[in-house]
């Protein structure tokens, strides 16, 4: 669910059982027109003319100004809130486009999704253009903020946190506080957004994608999705078979596993990534002071969590001062393990060092901007919109167990093998208190050509999920980055092997003859 600009800090929340079906508009096979209509009453959406213009919304809109400077144009796509009632209420989905400059060799439009769910991609066309090198000018590169995300029609439940990825803590009492927190988060969402929540789902986002394709005048569309975006892309291929051209799925998810308890699948990868980081930190004890061996560093971490369970740790200085208990400290660890680059590891080293000094009773010091931003996400409502939309999608896709004892039993069973993350990855979340989804989860029944990218030690969406998706899409090919604890590879990890293979596919449309591997 990439660091904090990430595809997935929020890939998991509560639990999955099943979902009740509902009457909604269904997709028909691709037609012969450019728009390829998708059902009665939707023509006005597919045929709309987009009002492309400047991206900056005002003098304080730095992102918009940067996009304007890069030659990107922005527009709003109108879509129905409820696809079963296309004449009813409408919402807007924000899109951006960096047009192809090599028009003689133009391939088509490529749609981007940065995962989350809850992450927008309106800002992303310029960086993708750069990563794609000589192939970039051959595409119209299109970013979009999914429904209720970013610049699209917003959803904000008014939470006092921007994420719900917390630990159950070390005691039954801390778990009960988590139950109360997540019940309250769900209630706040329902109180102000009851008319909208039933329509926040991956399937409806996929329908929006097809409207975007139609409004762009494309028979088929290429797609690049990170993390949750790999699930969204897979769902799109199942709902609208035959409408994709080139598709890259990076940090892939087994669609059968997607749901509120997805992060449960990665608990082992999280513990191993932390152990690998501890080895790295031990070799730099003079810098971080956490211990000279892996075991000592892990013992320091365990001590910090234990200390925070007795009384919250105070870190930082005003105005960025925070109090963290044993439900919040593991979130810092989880957030810092999405990459094994030296820069990412150093950032986590600095953060754990701050926590260790707080646990030892030392006076708080000024936090780095990155650490302060992370703690604001976890402890304030600054990013309530992101947490709200992310949660609404996951809870709107797959139902979760409603009995808190289900979670408590899993937490207790996992503590011995996974002492730092068992209580995080198995924790209860708002989906336990959410209304049941309107549609059944999407099942993979259609093959699709796709290039899947995955690292063997991915701590967010485990490599086994990519292998499973590859098996479900027989025409796909898999690029495996061996020995890397990394989530989201292309462009971000600066792995020349991966970038070259992906760019070759985007340029030629030809998948490799067999599965590929790249060294870390």
UniProtKB/TrEMBL annotation:
Per the record's keyword annotation, is Disulfide bond included, yes or no? no
Q: What molecular function terms (GO) are annotated for this protein?
A: hydrolase activity
Residues spanning the signal sequence: 1-22
Pfam families listed in its UniProt record = Abhydrolase_4
Q: Which domain of life is it from?
A: Bacteria
Q: Which UniProt keywords apply?
A: Hydrolase, Signal
* Domain Peptidase S33 tripeptidyl aminopeptidase-like C-terminal per the UniProt entry, residue ranges: 426-518
Indicate whether Hydrolase appears among the record's keywords: yes
Family recorded in the similarity comment: Belongs to the peptidase S33 family.
Name of this chain's protein? Alpha/beta hydrolase
Report the source organism: Streptomyces kanamyceticus
């Amino acid at each position: 669910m990439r660091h904090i600009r990430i595809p997935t800090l929020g890939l998991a929340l509560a639990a999955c059982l099943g979902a009740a079906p509902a009457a909604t508009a269904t997709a028909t096979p691709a037609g012969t027109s450019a728009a390829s209509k998708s059902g009665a009453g939707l023509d006005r959406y597919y045929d709309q003319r987009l009002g492309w213009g400047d991206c900056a919304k005002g003098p304080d809109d730095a992102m918009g100004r940067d996009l304007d400077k890069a030659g990107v144009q922005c527009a709003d796509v109108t879509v129905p809130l409820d696809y079963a009632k296309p004449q009813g209420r409408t919402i807007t989905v924000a899109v951006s486009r960096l047009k192809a400059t090599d028009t003689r060799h133009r391939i088509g439009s490529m749609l981007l999704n940065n995962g989350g769910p809850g992450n927008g991609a309106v800002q992303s066309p310029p960086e993708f253009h750069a990563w794609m090198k000589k192939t970039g000018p051959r595409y119209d590169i299109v970013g979009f903020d999914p429904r209720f995300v970013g610049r699209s029609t917003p959803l904000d439940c008014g939470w006092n946190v921007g994420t719900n990825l917390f630990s159950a803590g070390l005691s039954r009492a801390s778990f009960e506080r988590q139950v109360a927190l997540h019940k309250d988060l769900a209630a706040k969402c329902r109180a102000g957004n009851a008319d909208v929540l039933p329509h926040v789902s991956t399937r409806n986002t996929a329908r929006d994608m097809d409207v975007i394709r139609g409004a762009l005048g494309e028979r088929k569309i290429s797609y690049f999705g990170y993390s949750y975006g790999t699930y969204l892309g897979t769902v799109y291929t199942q709902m609208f078979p035959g409408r994709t051209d080139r598709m890259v799925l990076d940090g892939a998810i087994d669609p059968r596993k997607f749901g509120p308890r997805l992060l449960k699948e990665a608990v082992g990868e999280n513990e191993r990534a932390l152990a690998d980081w501890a080895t790295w930190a031990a070799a730099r004890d003079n810098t971080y002071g956490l211990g000279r061996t892996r075991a000592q560093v892990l013992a320091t971490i365990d001590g910090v969590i234990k200390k925070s369970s007795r009384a919250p740790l105070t870190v930082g200085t005003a105005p960025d001062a925070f109090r963290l208990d044993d439900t919040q400290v593991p979130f810092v660890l989880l957030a810092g393990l999405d990459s094994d680059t030296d820069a990412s590891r150093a950032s986590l080293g600095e953060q754990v060092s701050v926590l260790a000094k707080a646990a030892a009773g030392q006076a708080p010091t000024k936090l780095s901007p990155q650490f302060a931003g992370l703690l604001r996400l976890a402890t304030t409502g600054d990013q309530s919109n992101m947490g709200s939309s992310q949660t609404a999608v996951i809870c709107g896709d797959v139902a979760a167990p409603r009995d808190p004892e289900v979670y408590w039993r899993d937490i207790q069973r996992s503590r011995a093998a996974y002492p730092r993350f068992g209580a995080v990855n198995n924790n209860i979340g708002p989906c336990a208190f959410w209304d049941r989804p309107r549609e059944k989860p999407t099942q993979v029944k259609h093959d699709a050509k796709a290039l899947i990218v995955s690292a063997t030690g991915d701590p967010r969406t485990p490599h086994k999920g990519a292998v499973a998706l590859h098996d479900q899409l027989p025409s796909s090919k898999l690029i495996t980055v061996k020995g890397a604890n990394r989530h989201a590879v292309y462009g971000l990890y600066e792995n020349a092997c991966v970038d070259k293979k992906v760019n070759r596919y985007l340029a030629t449309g030809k998948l490799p003859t067999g599965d590929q591997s790249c060294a870390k």
